[in-house]
Each structure stands twice: as C-alpha cells, then as structure tokens.
Amino acid sequence: MKQIGFLIIILFFSLNLSASITVEYKSKLAPEVINTEMINEVEYFNVFELNKTFKAKIMEDLLDQRLNVNIYGEQLIFLLESSYVFFHSEMYSFSQDIVQKDGKYYIPVVFLKMIFPRIFPDKITIKKDKIIAETPVDSSIRTIVLDPGHGGKDPGAVGYSKKNFEKDIVLTVTKKLKKVLEENLDVEVLLTREKDEFVSLQQRTKFANENTADLFISIHCNAHRKEVIDGIEVFYLSTAKTDEARAVEALENKVVYEYEGGLEAVKKYNDLAFILADMAQSEHLEESYHLGMKLQNTLVGSTKGYDRGVKQANFYVLRGAFMPAVLIELGFLTNKEEEKKLIKTSYQNKLIQSIYQGIKNFKLKYDKMQ
Ligand SMILES: [Zn+2]
User: What ranges do the domains of the chain cover?
Assistant: First the structure.
C-alpha cells in the first residue's frame, strides 16, 4: 500500500514535468496552451509554441546567432545561447540560457511569466498560472500591391519593332495577375496604377505603405542596347553599404554578447540601439530575397526563358517600401524573339501563372513561418 502511494506521488511529479501554461484571450477566442518541459531542471518551452498561441513569426538568424520573434507586430530579438532578449533597445535577462534540443530552440518559462508582461504591459497579464492576453494579430500576407512600371509620359522600354511599349505590356499582365491572385489566394490586391498614367516612384511605395501592404511587387520589361540580350531576372533591394553594414552588425553583435556586465553592458545597450535601427530593413531584405528566388524559379521553370538570376540593386521604387519588395523583369523588349513572346496572350498567361505560383509558394511558407 505504501509503495502504491509512493508510485502515485512519483506519477504526480512526472506528470507535472511535462506541464503547460494556459493562455486566455481577452476576446472570444478559445484558450490555448503553451506546452512546457523540464530541461536540466529548468522549465522551458519550444519557441514555436509562440507561433501557435500568439501567431508570432519566428525567424532563426543563425549567422548572427539570433532568434527574431515578431509578436503583436513588434520585434523581439533573442540572443542564442544567452539569457537575453532585446526589445525597443532595452535588454531583459531571464537568468537561464536559451537551449537547443532536437534542432529546436527552447526558452525558459521565466520569460513568459516575468518578462513578457513587462514588454507588453497593456496586452499581457499573469493571473496565477494563466496568461491573459490581448488577441494576437494575424500577420499573414493579406494585402499585395502590384506595381505596373512606368505609364503615361514614361513608356519604359520600347520594343525591337518600335511598336510595343513596356508600360502597356506590364499593365495588361498586372491587371490579369490581380484577378488570378484574388481568385485563388485569400488576399486583396491593389494596383499603383490602373490605366495609362504617370505615377512617380515615390508615390508607388507611398501607396503601398499607406495601404499597409504585406508584399510589393513591381513588374517591368527589360531593355538592352545589345539586341541579343534576353532572359528573366528578379531584383530585390540592396544599397552598396547594406552588405558591409550587415557584416559589421554581425561582428559587433558577437563582440557585444561575449562581454557581459559593468561598462560592457552599457556598451551593449548603446551598440544594440544602433543595430536595431537597421534591423527592420535587413529583415525585409532576407524575405525579399526569398520571394525573389521563388518567383525566379517559377518564371524560368515554366517559360524556359534564360535565367539571369536573382540580383540585388538599388532601385528607388523598392527603397521606400516597409515590406518585402521585389522587381520582376519579364524579358527584354529589345530582343526580337522575346518581344514577340511578350506581346502574346498565351505567353503572358504563362508569366502570370508563374508569378502566382511564386507568390503562393512564398505566402505558404511566410504565413506559417517555417
Ligand atoms: Zn521598367
């Protein structure tokens, strides 16, 4: 009898080891649980539990040894193999280090109970062992801005035949693409121009920002003084200094978190404020690159056009966008053969289907965030 009682006690404790924390929402949303587990006698949770409960977007940045967690539209930066999280250039410590298990990152539960409510005081409260939370924001891709290049007084590229203009071809393609996207994906698609009119580059990104677009896709046809040049390419933004800045940033971050305490902690704070200012943009650069890759793959795959690759360039039209943004060059109007293809409805439809597939592939991955 005694033994059975002992077993029950053991059972009770081992059940307790794989515990959970209930999350109740202020709206009518059904409660969720964050599963926790003991690792080295400390209670941890898999960071992806935040995706389930708070629709957080989680990006592992292994190069810079960070975990970027976007929650309630705000960016939290966890430094891997440390006990620090940065938010709005404030540093918070949860005492125990983030650990890796089976390729997944685990964060101490202390973060949820102590730091989470401090970071979001008007959204998160702890009641006994429950988290009472503001309803999470769904950050999946909902609004896409398509930008048909040029228009009005600006014809863009002129065809080999001198009869066809970039501004007309891209408008036709973009209008049809809008239809395909809206019919097949749960998205709203807005165009920077719906007719043959001039729109400044600044107005185009301003339009995307004002409509809080989740993606910005600028559509163009190419031109080259050598008429033999042909092929498809996709660009995403980069300024010459960004690469260097990123490299410097990675370097500084390592130095920063190798030193702890005292004056170094102050240095850490100052350096991080600088790094954070650059974060929002660099985050989108990576996403833009992934979007570009998906689009290039589907476009080249279906058209068998010459693959000119995904490239970085400092396009003004991409610079002002606060969202993943790419610029597609569908082909060279200055190439006799490619011009013939680009004006054909069947070929345009092939391009449209490819862009749709590329966006769909990106959206699936982005919405779930790996
Ligand atoms: Zn153009």
Answer: 2-133, 143-240+273-368
Q: How far, in Å, is the centroid of ligand 1 from the Cα of 231?
A: 14
Locate tokens 């590229």: which residue? 157
**pLDDT higher for 170 or 62?**
170
Query: Residue 185 contacts by C-beta under 8 Å, 6 or more apart in sequence?
Result: 356, 359, 360, 363
87 Cα to the center of ligand 1, angstroms? 39
Q: Ligand 1 centroid vs 214 CA: distance in angstroms?
A: 22
| Ligand 1 centroid – CA 227 distance (Å) | 16
Q: Please name the fold of domain 2-133.
A: Copper Amine Oxidase; Chain A, domain 1 (3.30.457)
| Cα 204 to averaged position of ligand 1 atoms, centre (Å) | 13
List pLDDT tens digits, range 320-354.
Answer: 677 888 989 999 999 999 999 999 999 999 999 99
Strands of 252-351, DSSP E: 307-313, 325-332
Question: How far is residue 265's CA from residue 259's CA, in Å, rounded to a whole number?
Answer: 7
The answer, yes or no, to whether residue 254 has pLDDT greater than 50, is: no
CATH architecture of 143-240+273-368: 3-Layer(aba) Sandwich (3.40)
CA of 169 to the centre of ligand 1 (A): 11
Q: Which helix (H) or strand (E) holds 160?
A: none
Task: State which residues have CB under 5 angstroms from ligand 1, the bound ion.
Answer: 149, 156, 220
